[in-house]
Amino acid sequence: MFLFESVCKRSLVFFYFSLKEVVPLTETFYTLPGAPRLAVLGDFHNGDPLPILRSLEKQKPDIIAIPGDLVYGSPPDHGLMTEQQKNVLPLLRGAAGIAPVFFSPGNHESILCREDWDAISSCGVQILDNRWVRHGNIWLGGLTSHYVLNHRAYMLSHPSCERYIRRRYSDESWVPIREPDLSWLEPLPEGYTVLLCHHPEYYPLLPRLNLIVSAHAHGGQIRLFGRGLFAPGQGWFPKYTCGIHDGRFIISRGLTNTTWVPRLFNPPEIVYIFPES
């Protein structure tokens, strides 16, 4: 009996980690009128850069968009976050050698310090922190996560000599920021507009743009009957987890799995958006 229970437990553990980790990366393609040849890398979370870079080299996009969450986890006890998470900078350097890279901050970037942002920029990456930039005849913008705004505001009101401030939002006087800053979005620039927006739940707040790319929902983690089960910021049975909505809003299922819950019927993906021929 003991042997049978031991075998069953080992089998369940093996099955769990097989589901959690050994999920192949897929490529998902969309075509839109007037769109640039664009790759979307969402929710990298310090994953494995090699299959991503191989895919980029094969597909040869003109622009690489990263709508947030390059990093994952808590601030390190020593050194830089971007140094401790050893796959982040290699991904960025490799991607920048293939096409121009544009990155907007997601919720996990709230913990980064100034040196981390400098390290990201040094890889040849344009950081879109609540701003528009022009690239040829395309305008790209990045809507910064309210988590980042919240942490910055907290740091300004609680000065510290620490590189990474462990947030202590228990102060009764502290009023957290719960919405993104939309003030910079309009007036919209003239031309084709692409917005990197980490949080898909922001979509109803946005003006009409040509293209919005998002991530964060991880496809709903478990997909049943074509619908995600849960997403942060949206809760159970969320509306926006993956795919294309309204012909202009595209959500990536993300590149990795970071929770103890395995992905089911929900493989990680690189999204490619090409112009209609």
Give a structural overview.
- Helices cover 23% and strands 22% of the residues.
- The protein contains six helices and 16 strands.
- The strands form four sheets. Strands 1-16-2-3-4-5 form a six-stranded mixed sheet. A six-stranded mixed sheet has the order 6-7-8-9-15-14, with no helix packed on it.
Fraction of residues in helices?
10-25%
Largest sheet: 6 strands, mixed
Helix/strand class:
alpha/beta
CATH fold-level assignment = Purple Acid Phosphatase, chain A, domain 2
Radius of gyration of CA atoms, rounded to a whole number: 19 Å
How would you concisely characterize the structure shown here?
The protein is of the alpha/beta class and 277 residues long.
How would you summarize the topology of this molecule?
Blueprint: H1 2-21, E1 26-32, E2 38-40, H2 49-59, E3 63-66, H3 81-84, H4 88-96, E4 101-103, H5 114-121, E5 125-127, E6 131-135, E7 138-143, H6 146-157, E8 192-197, E9 211-214, E10 223-224, E11 227-228, E12 230-231, E13 235-236, E14 243-245, E15 249-251, E16 269-275
Parallel strand pairs: 1-16, 2-3, 3-4, 4-5, 7-8, 8-9, 9-15
Antiparallel strand pairs: 2-16, 6-7, 10-11, 12-13, 14-15
Helix pairs in contact: 2-4
Provide the descriptors you would attach to this structure in a database record.
Purple Acid Phosphatase, chain A, domain 2; six-stranded mixed β-sheet; alpha/beta; disordered N terminus; 16 strands
